[in-house]
Amino acid sequence: MNKSQRLTRQKPASFKAGIVHLGPGNFFRAFAAVYTQEAMEDSGGDWGIVAVSLKSTTARDQLLAQGGAYTSITLSPSDSRTDIIESIVDVLVAPENPQSVLDAMSQPSIRIVSLTITEKGYCHDPSTGNLNVDHADIAHDIEGGAPRSAIGFIVQALALRKKAGLAPFTVMSCDNLPNNGQLTKHVVLQLAEQQDAQLAQWIDEQVSFPSTMVDRIAPATTEHDIEQLRLQQGYIDLACVTHEDFREWVIEDNFCAGRPNWKTGNVQFVESVTGHELKKLRCLNGTHSALAYLGYLAGYETIADTVADPAFSQLCHKLWQTEIIPTVPAPSGVNLQDYCSTLLERYRNPAIRHRTWQIAMDGSQKIPQRLLGTLCDNLISNRPIDGIALVLAAWMRYVSGVDENGNEIDVRDPMATQLRTLASSTATAEETVTLFLGMSAVFGQLPKDSSRVEIVLTRVYASLLEHGTKGAVELYVS
User: Residue 303: which CATH number?
Assistant: First the structure.
């Protein structure tokens, strides 16, 4: 293969479509698409994937130029492995042709619609779980016409299937949200009820919404990754994805129209994923957010860089031991101490360049799931909250848009403008904390009497201002 030649599918697509996936970003391509290819290769079945981008044309432009094929690059501290993934059989861009997406989702062969659309893609209020009917895309979808939101596409496609007398598909969220299946069902039903009560009843009775827990670190692909692949393998693949070797997928076994034999990839099918979700959201995602905000403000580019600093690895250890693990009932067969030790080793993998800035994105949507549940549980049990408070204070400092050296921060968040305006309107730590805690869209799940939270948050926010981020972390772990 010529050094400048693009990757192409090795053979004509032999997999027929059985899945429509909304949100074909890096994580999906490093995770579910890999599992699905392995299942079809091992056990057969028509489970090819029609990938749907809800916003950008990038995935379509990159993947279709290669016949849907791309390279999965497994990075360990000492070496790497490449695999060509060919489970994607088509890629659509919803804003260009929403009807083509509805047509795909309405095909009888489609038995699963899966999602990796990030927390903000559910267009809900993170503090209540309810559909945000004031969200621009949801307001549009309530009015009718071509849908814009992922929830709108699901509701309209199910309506078309009901009208045609077709069986429904399973809706499977693969995003980092607690009880993601129930949350997805809740917002889907709320939108359906706005349009057709009988449709909502049919969805409630006929459609499966299994909850899932997904785990694999997959950073954004860089130009360096693409060039390294070209040098090592002799081809250009703009759609390649990098990820760690570790992976874990736990799924509630609740599918109304069948599923691939994902067990070939050691997927765990269980009656309830709640314990696994809580373990991952609080132990992994919670400390990931801690390292993202505190690490970024301290000047570290990646998670591996951050935990190479002993103070930040101690931060993780203290958070786990004193504030997180006490709130997490261990799932059957899981030792939480061992799990967290493994997490720290994963964070230390220098081959995984997972940028603190990337993880820091959309914090207003992530904080309620990753941190506030832990905080509330510790308040009820009168346990320490200083570590979680320090993370929240770092987030408040981060979304001000200016770091402690006066440099601009490119804050990517649905509430970025509101957050920056709020932060710039305060002069003291006490004022900042009081105004932020008043944001019900983020902190609405805190108890009405949150005076202890306000006192501790004000103290650690003042510590950030007085000692700098690294100094505040060192004080916390000392």
Answer: 1.10.1040.10
Q: Is residue 67 part of a domain?
A: yes
Q: Which of 253, 270, 287 is the last residue of a domain?
A: 270
Q: Could you tell me if 130 and 143 lie in one domain?
A: yes
| Res 127: pLDDT | 85
Instruction: Say whether pTM exceeds 0.90.
Output: yes
Name the band, by pLDDT with cuts 50, 70 and 90, for residue 449.
Answer: confident
Alpha-carbon gap, residue 298 to 204, rounded angstroms:
48
**Closest of 113, 69, 112 to residue 241, by C-alpha:** 69
SS3 assignment, position 78: coil
Could you tell me if 39 and 117 lie in one domain? yes
Closest of 447, 448, 445 to residue 178, by C-alpha: 445
Tokens 């690895």 correspond to 313
- Is the CA virtual torsion 113, 117, 121, 125 positive or negative? positive
CA distances from 79 to 150, 246, 351 (A): 38, 14, 9
Residue 195 phi, psi (nearest 5): -110, -40
Give the model confidence (pLDDT) of 61-120 as tens digits: 999 999 999 999 999 988 899 999 999 999 999 999 999 999 999 999 999 999 999 999
Strands 17-22 and 112-115: parallel
Residues 166 and 220 in one domain: yes
Please say whether the dihedral angle defined by the alpha carbons of residues 416, 417, 419 and 424, taken in this order, is positive or negative: positive
Residue 228 to residues 104, 301, 382, 388: CA-CA distances in angstroms?
36, 20, 51, 38
Domain count of the fold of the chain: 2
Q: How far apart are CA 396 and CA 3, in angstroms?
A: 47
Distance CA 433, CA 443 (A): 11
- The candidate with the shortest Cα–Cα distance to 476, out of 405, 391, 370, 403, is 391
421 in the same domain as 283:
yes
**Measured distance CA(440)–CA(413) in Å, rounded:** 16
Q: Tell me, rounded to whole angstroms, the distance of Cα 201 from its chain centroid.
A: 29
Q: Measuring CA to CA, which residue among 348, 368, 346, 249 is closest to residue 304?
A: 348
Calculate ∠ Cα 225-68-172, nearest 5°.
95
Among 270, 302, 334, where does a domain finish? 270
CATH value at residue 176? 3.40.50.720
Beta-bridge mates of residue 358: none
Domain that holds residue 443: 274-477
Element (H, E) at 234: none
Domain membership of residue 420 (yes or no) is yes
Q: Is residue 8 part of a domain?
A: no
pLDDT digits (tens, 9 = 90+) for 338-373: 999 999 999 999 999 999 999 999 999 999 999 999
- Point out which residues pair with 48 in neighbouring strands: 17
Spatial CB neighbours of 14, under 8 Å, sequence gap ≥ 6: none
Reported as type and span, the H/E element at residue 163 is: helix 150-164
